[in-house]
Amino acid sequence: MMNDVALCSMKTKIYLIIFTVLVSCKSNHNQPFTNEVRIDSIMGKLLFPAGKNVLTGGDGAISIVIDKKKSLWLWGDSYVGESTGEMRESTIPSIFGNVFVLLDGDSARTIYGGLPEQPLPVIVSEQVNGRHAVYWPHHGFLKNGILHLFVANIVFGGAGMWDFYCRAVVYCRLSYPDFTLIDRQELAAYPVNNVAYGFGLHEYHGHYYFYGSQFNRTSSTLHAGRARLTDNKLQNWEYFDGTEWTLDPSKTQPLSGIDIPISSQFSIIRYKKKFILLNQERGIGTNDIYTFVADNPVGPWYNRKKIYSTPEPVRDRNLFAYNAMAHPQYDKDGMLLVSYCLNMHKPTHQVADYRPRFIRVPYRLIMN
Fold first, then answer.
1. Is residue 44 part of a domain?
2. Rounded Cα distance, 333 and 360, in Å
3. Residues spanned by the domain of 102
4. Is residue 128 part of a domain?
5. CA angle (198, 174, 95) in 5-degree steps
6. Cα 289 from Cα 280, distance rounded (Å)
7. Distance between CA 99 and CA 108 in Å, rounded?
8. Are residues 146 and 176 in contact, defined by beta-carbon separation less than 8 angstroms?
9. How many domains, the chain?
10. How far apart are CA 93 and CA 52, in angstroms?
């Protein structure tokens, strides 16, 4: 049983600031498209409320629909403690791995393991060859009282910011609403094809589709898999080889039509019988967020649009933006809620430097 802490309710005045952004009006052409994308200043206040034993900073910002009112937000490395203002106290504990926030309307409940003075991830990893290891969350879904969640088993190798590697991709099942771990299973595909599956989870024609990036020194491509939910567990795993589905993960091929590097996090959602890929170009210093459209779950993908360019790293060179995600359960006025993460090259105590930003993007901008 996990330690549930901090039920915090916040009510705020809703306001949106119109922001001018460059987007592409035609596929493969970037032209100015003004007064279309709007900054959303409300979601961050809901997810990071004032109070004690609450989430004060984190990245990931991955959301899973629970019901019409609730969504479960998944965070990677996080700070949990007392939130009092714009500065983070140096004594606030950090959690490496995974933290959940259950957002029910305008009430946020921060969920983690351990004790408030010694917080732990919800899902704890054992050490790997004597080295510290964690589970970073991917995406998932809730069905029949079970949270199906993909995570990456990350192993740290040194003191540097980038001294880590992904050892495995793991499929976990947790009971809801107490988030007790039922079981976990390492995906047999990852050692074979190096695809970090577990994003864009959705059900379509009897299968649950999932996607991942395959990263090497020269490229980062999008790959697809699918499985059936049998006896409340994903089984009968298949992989797309560019033409058809196969049981052999080594035969996976990149999905066609995508000409930018796929990030380690991305979203694939359904909209009006179409599929939308939302992806921030992979790499530090790559501020552009793109969308693509497809007629079926595996493409080919078309209608590339640059919908936004994150301004924070331009204004402050100590910041970098990454891993944009879509949250269609919060659609409003024909606009899609999108988040992107912020982080620092050199740590600061400014709470805003390690919190995601949110924007709203008109669907017509994506689809036209």
1. no
2. 10
3. 53-186
4. yes
5. 75
6. 4
7. 13
8. yes
9. 1
10. 12
